[in-house]
């Protein structure tokens, strides 16, 4: 907030000037050495790193949102363990000082002319481009859902508009089915759809309502979790706590007025099953960002087509990508963004010197699987789906210490380490804890 207060408006140009950074809708300077698209986890991180590499005056970030959110904490917000206010800070306060903030939406990327166009018609040219636009949520792809979200008893931790509705629905639960969905698309943080199930179960137990509840997880996937080591532990939790898991069940319709959710059996296309609910948590279908999908930068599926080792674009050597918008074959998480940022920083520094990129991203990603209000299984793995654990203990075990990592340590690392370009993932600590063996 202090940063916001320091902002002052320059009346003649309409340009907002701060002691920290400059921000504009229509800027006089339309060319930047480094242009970053998106000011989320990956975009802010890379702009901080690029500022150190080439000076603040050479870096601009295009980001329309006034607020920056730490999305991983929404799992705990939906379960009432953290406030929604704790998840957001003004974008002005996380933008690296001196870096130009272009407060607009990118509408078009033209890598053949090294330009982008924003929604107010401004054309910005660049020498190097980092794309960090994230992915898109498609609540609209489920029949009846957009209007259904107006009703109580439905929540979704995946958006700032609906995360508090999850907590309200949980608090108002009386008896019946608590249903949790996982869509038939790639998602960000593939553990989040089931974390809220475990937390809801824990809440219902704490409040004495569990005996009157059926807790049901309907997932499109053929497995509970993609990495066997952690899936085995999660199945034990599911059995111990009498949770019902239905694999290959995909949410296709919500009838909010009747409190019914319709799932398709993916193994028997066309066969549907109706679940009545007292509470429904929806993880929406997700897909590539439309601006990336509609550009020459996309692969066939619409994701940003980057080299999986170096994060450099496969066709345009002055374009790079990070985070959820890319086709990197690993789980889409902020933890992955951290590890990617260190590699991408190295790749760009080499390209600037006309040298070959020499460091390879191993696909590191992490998912703190919250199983209650004080336990977490900390999944960490690589491109091959092999566990790549930081601590020299079995992380597939539910642990109180890992809950504190998730709830208290990681937010701090995010705001003060990652966003300042100072946290490149736990790799060095992993080496240290394993005496250089991993
Ligand atoms: C409920 C939930 C739980 C999660 N849990 C975890 C977890 O436990 N651990 C973990 O590591 N990760 C977790 N994640 C995932 C993590 O938040 C994302 O993977 C991460 O934020 C990806 O960073 P990004 O920069 O790729 O995308 P984002 O951080 O989403 O940033 C994209 C940015 O692009 C901007 N943008 C969009 N369109 C435009 C446009 N046209 N022009 C300009 N800018 C635009 C957006 O405003 C946004 O700021 C969770 C996410 C959710 C929703």
From TrEMBL:
UniProt keyword terms in alphabetical order: FAD, Flavoprotein, Mitochondrion, Oxidoreductase, Quinone, Transit peptide
Compartmental location: Mitochondrion
Assigned GO CC terms: mitochondrion
Family assignment from sequence similarity: Belongs to the SQRD family.
Purpose of the protein: Catalyzes the oxidation of hydrogen sulfide with the help of a quinone, such as ubiquinone-10, giving rise to thiosulfate and ultimately to sulfane (molecular sulfur) atoms. Requires an additional electron acceptor; can use sulfite, sulfide or cyanide (in vitro). It is believed the in vivo electron acceptor is glutathione.
Pfam families in UniProt: Pyr_redox_2
First-tier enzyme category under EC: oxidoreductase
InterPro entries named in the record: FAD/NAD-bd_sf, FAD/NAD-binding_dom, Sulphide_quinone_reductase
Protein name: Sulfide:quinone oxidoreductase, mitochondrial
Residue ranges crossing the lipid bilayer per the database entry: none
Recorded catalytic activity of this chain's protein: ubiquinone-10 + hydrogen sulfide + glutathione + H(+) = S-sulfanylglutathione + ubiquinol-10; a quinone + hydrogen sulfide + glutathione + H(+) = S-sulfanylglutathione + a quinol; ubiquinone-10 + hydrogen sulfide + sulfite + 2 H(+) = ubiquinol-10 + thiosulfate
Listed cofactors: FAD
FAD/NAD(P)-binding domain segment(s): 32-148
Organism of derivation: Stegastes partitus (bicolor damselfish)
GO biological process terms held by the UniProt record: sulfide oxidation, using sulfide:quinone oxidoreductase
GO MF annotations in UniProt: FAD binding; glutathione-dependent sulfide quinone oxidoreductase activity; quinone binding; sulfide:quinone oxidoreductase activity
Top-level taxonomic group: Eukaryota
Record EC number: 1.8.5.8
Major location (coarse): mitochondrion
């Amino acid at each position: 907030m202090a940063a916001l207060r320091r902002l002052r408006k320059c009346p003649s140009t309409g340009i907002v000037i701060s002691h920290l950074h400059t921000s504009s809708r229509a800027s006089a300077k339309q060319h930047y050495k480094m242009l970053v698209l998106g000011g989320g986890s990956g975009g802010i991180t890379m702009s901080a790193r690029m500022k150190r590499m080439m000076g603040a005056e050479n870096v601009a970030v295009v980001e329309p949102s006034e607020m920056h959110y730490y999305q991983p904490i929404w799992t705990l917000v939906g379960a009432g363990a953290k406030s929604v206010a704790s998840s957001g800070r003004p974008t002005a306060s996380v933008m690296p000082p001196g870096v130009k903030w272009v407060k607009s939406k990118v509408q078009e990327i033209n890598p053949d002319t090294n330009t982008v166009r924003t929604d107010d018609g401004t054309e910005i040219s660049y020498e190097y481009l980092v794309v960090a636009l994230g992915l898109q949520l498609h609540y609209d792809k489920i029949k009846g859902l957009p209007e259904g979200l107006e009703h109580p008893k439905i929540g979704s931790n995946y958006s700032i508009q609906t995360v508090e509705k999850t907590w309200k629905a949980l608090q108002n639960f009386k008896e019946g089915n608590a249903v949790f969905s996982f869509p038939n698309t790639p998602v960000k943080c593939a553990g989040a759809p089931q974390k809220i199930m475990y937390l809801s179960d824990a809440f219902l137990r704490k409040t004495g309502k569990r005996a009157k509840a059926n807790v049901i997880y309907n997932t499109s996937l053929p497995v509970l979790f993609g990495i066997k080591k952690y899936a085995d532990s999660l199945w034990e939790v599911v059995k111990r706590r009498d949770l019902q898991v239905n694999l290959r069940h995909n949410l296709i319709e919500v009838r909010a007025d009747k409190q019914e959710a319709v799932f398709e059996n993916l193994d028997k296309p066309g066969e549907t099953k109706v679940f009545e609910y007292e509470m429904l948590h929806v993880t929406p279908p997700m897909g590539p960002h439309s601006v990336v999908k509609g550009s020459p930068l996309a692969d066939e599926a619409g994701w940003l087509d980057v080299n999986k080792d170096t994060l450099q674009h496969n066709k345009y050597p002055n374009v790079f990508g990070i985070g959820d918008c890319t086709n990197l074959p690993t789980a889409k998480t902020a933890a992955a963004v951290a590890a990617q940022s260190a590699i991408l920083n190295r790749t760009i520094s080499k390209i600037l010197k006309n040298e070959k990129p020499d460091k390879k991203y191993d696909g590191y990603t992490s998912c703190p699987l919250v199983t209650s209000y004080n336990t977490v299984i900390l999944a960490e793995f690589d491109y091959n789906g092999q566990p790549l654990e930081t601590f020299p203990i079995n992380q597939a075990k539910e642990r109180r210490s890992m809950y504190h990592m998730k709830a208290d340590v990681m937010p701090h690392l995010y705001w003060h380490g990652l966003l300042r370009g100072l946290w490149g993932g736990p790799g060095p600590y992993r080496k240290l804890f394993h005496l250089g063996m991993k």
